[in-house]
Specification:
- This protein is 8% helix and 37% strand.
- The protein is mainly beta.
- It has three domains: 6-185, no CATH class; 209-552, 7 Propeller (Methylamine Dehydrogenase, Chain H); 562-643, Immunoglobulin-like.
- A seven-stranded mixed beta barrel has the order 1-2-4-8-7-6-5. The protein has a four-stranded antiparallel beta sheet with strand order 9-36-35-34, with no helix packed on it.
- The radius of gyration is 28 Å and the shape is elongated.
- Mean pLDDT is 90; it is low at 6-21.
Length: 647
């Protein structure tokens, strides 16, 4: 009878049995294996008979459950294919073993780990425990993704996890399955990664995103109480959550907001000190929500209509450099629309799309989806990237018009599923770089600071082999001063690639804690922010399985850097550029604040830098060309620079 580890199948429906063998093919975590096991023991191989093809395993420690068995006796000769040969080669006297099993009536189903490999045994319970024999079915060729370290360390991890001293490490989906040659060649790993390091994201605060088509998220202090509140956009209605000392309350109805939305972005268009909301609805006219002190009124009449409507991506930028936030909207085949903020009504926003090279027949007038906005060429005017065709990068020409940046050498696929791009200065050279998720090979574009980009993903092995990426965002989640890359897969879990500081990234998902949240599949919008004020970046995200704030509780093993927080007053337009330099005027950090990217999701108007304590020169280039400067001596406890409306 062909079987797989039954409790896991029944509990989570995560295993896919191959008809002839019963392999565990789907990615499963060690926690799932532990939770699905009634019994777990640690022991060692006491005897191997090569001719009889049998092995005896002692039970030295009972880690879970109370079993009448005194040893595990295994018949290895009945396994399929080359697996008996593998087991007889691998199991050596004295070799440690960890064994997990489940009992259903008299049926026994077990998973074992020895010499770096996983294997399945099955047996039948007997009134005389000494007469219980287990039968080998196969070696698990893909379960190295569950755990790929030494067996002795696995025993300690399981014991500590069951005692509540730690969390089990997450699986690593990036590991290739074992080949027959590797299994027979004895190349299983003997040294584990640093499994004892606590996860970066320790817990999740689940939020209802309304269900349906789920796309954009954003942060803003809509009620002026000093902490960041949450907006989640979905096809069944947007949701506004007020942040009350780290707890989130749904205030959508009380705030007067309603209706579905694909994206929503914040800016104080009327300069009253309260962030207002522009929402791209689901097939209807976009809505401008004016903030009147925590309650919102529909002010859409301040914008001329641009139907027929198929709005998708929306964002604020100061297109003409006058210090006032303007609106950029993607509207399917009707084109991209730009509304310039006039600073007063009744015609508060002027439709200048055609004059700026946009609108019907203009740049990006095909049916695309989301926007990412940034000043990629460093001239002080915000540019944009639009997901349509082979990717549309539009350069802002001195605040007068947009032009297609054909020479930038940006090229990626926008067909099929929508995707969310990530922008930041990942290599620390003072300009904005770009990561584009793709179903096949993603793109990592390094800005050459001459109006062009170079795809360098081939030089980053862990990213070059990535497939099925859908969404991404940069954030320094481990507080080492370098932006890391979080990538969501279209049909799989989220991954963390840590920035190594040399233009490269390594897959360190096993450190992230992301696999503790098994519902984190097909994530779309993501936006980082320090919502709890502890100096590290948390992550707001949404998917069709729900939304959440992932709480960053990382405790670096190295010397802790100080947190520098630069926060803009609400009246200042999104798009200001913050530069941090050391006393020798060497750049140590650059961020552009409050612009949308990643499914038109929006971080808060705040930049956070992790820096060694000491003196730094700070500057903020505002969107109207004015520059604010200060010098701060940052203590170990960190520092805050609040950049006000007026100097």
């Amino acid at each position: 009878m062909n079987r797989t580890f039954p409790a896991i199948v029944a509990a989570a429906a995560i295993l896919a049995a191959v008809p002839a063998v019963g392999f565990i093919e789907r990615l499963i975590s060690l926690k799932e294996v532990m939770d699905s096991s009634a019994f777990i023991i640690a022991g060692k191989v006491t005897q191997v008979d090569q001719s009889a093809k049998t092995a005896y395993i002692s039970i030295d420690r009972t880690l879970k459950g109370k079993t009448p068995l005194r040893q595990i006796k295994a018949n290895l000769g009945v396994g399929q294919a080359h697996f008996p040969q593998v087991m007889l080669k691998r199991l050596r006297v004295g070799e440690p073993v960890v064994f997990f099993w489940e009992q259903n009536d008299n049926n026994l189903a077990g998973l074992g780990h020895a010499d770096g490999i996983w294997f399945q045994l099955y047996g039948d319970m007997n009134p005389d425990p000494d007469k219980v024999w287990w039968r080998l079915t196969h070696v698990e060729e893909a379960m190295n993704r569950t755990y790929d370290g030494p067996t002795a360390e696995l025993a300690q991890i399981v014991a500590d996890s069951l005692a509540g001293k730690r969390q089990p490490p997450p699986p690593n989906p990036r590991l290739p399955r074992w080949t027959r040659e590797q299994l027979l060649g004895g190349t299983a790993p003997k040294t584990a990664r640093n499994y004892d390091q606590p996860p970066i994201f320790a817990r999740a605060i689940r939020l209802d995103n309304g269900g349906g088509e789920s796309r954009s998220v954003s942060w803003a202090d809509y009620d002026g109480d000093g902490d960041w509140d949450v907006l989640i956009c979905s096809g069944n209605g947007l949701r506004l959550y007020r942040n009350d000392a780290g707890k989130f309350a749904d205030v959508t109805g009380a705030a007067g907001l309603r209706g579905p939305a694909r994206s929503g972005a914040w800016a104080d268009y009327n300069a009253d000190g309260r962030p207002d909301l522009y929402a791209a609805t689901l097939g209807g006219r976009p809505v401008l929500w004016t903030n009147q002190g925590g309650k919102f009124v529909d002010s859409s009449a301040l914008l001329t209509e641009c139907g027929p409507y198929n709005p998708e991506g929306a964002g604020w930028l100061d297109a003409n450099g006058d210090g006032r936030p303007d609106i950029l909207l993607t509207n399917g085949e009707s084109g991209i629309y730009l509304y310039l903020n006039q600073g007063k009504g009744p015609a508060w926003f002027a439709d200048v799309s055609a004059r700026w090279g946009l609108g019907r027949g203009g740049i990006g007038s095909q049916n695309g989806d989301f926007l990412a906005i940034a000043d990629y060429d460093g001239d002080g005017f915000a540019d944009f990237l639009y997901n349509v065709g082979r990717g549309v990068l539009a350069r802002n020409r001195d605040g007068e018009a947009f032009a297609l940046a054909a020479a930038a050498k940006i090229d990626f696929s926008c067909g099929g599923a929508k995707h969310g791009n990530a922008l930041t200065d990942f290599d620390g050279d003072g300009d904005i770089d770009l990561f584009v998720p793709q179903p096949d090979r993603s793109r990592l574009y390094r800005n050459n600071n001459d109006g062009t980009f170079t795809d360098v993903i081939a030089s980053v092995p862990d990213l070059a082999t990535l497939r099925g990426a859908r969404s991404a965002v940069f954030a320094d989640v481990n507080r080492d001063g370098r932006p890391d890359l979080l990538v969501a897969l279209a049909d799989g879990p989220m991954l963390l690639f840590v920035n190594e500081g040399n233009g490269s990234f390594t897959d360190q998902t096993y450190l992230s804690g992301l696999f503790a949240f098994d519902w984190l599949h097909n994530v779309t919008g993501m936006a980082p922010a320090d919502f709890d004020g502890d100096g590290d970046l948390d992550l707001l995200l949404t998917s069709e399985r729900g939304a959440a704030v992932l709480v960053n509780e990382h405790k670096p093993s190295k010397a802790v850097l100080a947190s520098l927080r630069v926060r803009l007053a609400p009246q200042l337009s999104p798009g200001a550029t913050v530069r941090v330099e050391d006393p020798r005027d060497r750049l140590v950090g650059l961020q552009q604040i409050g612009l949308v990217q990643n499914f038109s999701s929006q971080p808060p108007p705040e930049a956070i830098f992790a820096l060694p304590p000491g003196k730094y020169n700070l500057s903020v280039l505002l969107t109207d060309g004015k520059v604010r400067r200060t010098t701060l001596d940052i203590p170990a406890r960190g520092a805050i620079w609040n950049v006000g409306e007026k100097e």
